[in-house]
From TrEMBL:
Catalytic class of the enzyme: hydrolase
Entry keyword set: Hydrolase
Protein name from the UniProt record: HAD family hydrolase
Organism listed in the record: Defluviitalea saccharophila
The keyword Hydrolase is assigned to this record: yes
Length: 218
């Protein structure tokens, strides 16, 4: 079945956001006297939304719901100020999106990132391209790997699951694709290692953006 719709994850797939995430969460942790983490460590913490990020970065003996909720709410505020710190499209993403648009593919974004901050980033870095839908956390759908958002995007465009490719950089994205009945393509420039991605056995693992054409036009 010919690919018609490509749904992208945001963080670690289209946009490198790790510095802003790590810097912001560390400020929250510092405010409470908790240990901070290296920016590199945050690559393993991200993927399931900011509330789960707060939980994972807190000391194990402070992961009660009250503390998690407090740090999550503070993170939303702090990150809204510093989300653009070090932010950039990954190399080759701009030309990839140009080519996909030129060839007539429909594009969309599905992320577990806060909806408001997602829209800030899309407006600042991705407004050149048309995405039929941008769904983030609190965008009216359950978080990934629940497939409801991905399937809603497909339905909006009038596409069957078999006509869609889901592109991401983590196990969360892979599970979302599987749950939605879509082909999964995982990228190696994001927040997970090659070993972590290969063991998931996705349909495709790519090292550079334009390799995606091998997956959508086999």
């Amino acid at each position: 079945m010919k690919t018609k719709l490509i749904i992208f994850d945001l963080d670690g797939t289209l946009v490198d956001t790790i510095e802003g995430i790590g810097f912001s969460m560390n400020k929250v942790l510092e405010n409470h006297g908790f240990p901070t983490h290296s920016i590199e460590a945050y690559r393993g913490f991200v993927g399931n939304g900011l509330k789960n990020l707060a939980k994972r970065t807190l000391p194990e003996d402070h992961r009660d719901e009250e503390t998690i909720d407090l740090c999550y709410k503070e993170m939303l505020d702090v990150y809204s100020q510093y989300y653009s710190r070090g932010i950039a499209l990954y190399p080759g993403i701009d030309s990839l999106l140009d080519q996909l648009t030129k060839e007539g593919y429909t594009l969309a974004i599905n992320t577990n990132k806060d909806q408001r901050i997602t829209e800030y980033i899309v407006k600042e870095l991705l407004s050149k391209w048309n995405f039929i839908k941008v769904i983030g956390d609190e965008g009216g759908y359950p978080k990934k790997p629940n497939p409801e958002a991905a399937l809603a995007i497909a339905a909006q465009g009038g596409f069957k699951a078999g006509e869609c490719v889901y592109v991401g950089d983590s196990e969360v994205d892979y599970k979302t694709a599987v749950n939605a009945g879509m082909k999964s393509v995982l990228v190696l420039w994001g927040f997970r290692s090659r070993e972590e991605l290969i063991k998931l056995n996705p349909e495709g693992v790519i090292e550079s953006p334009h390799e995606i054409f091998k997956m959508i036009n086999p």
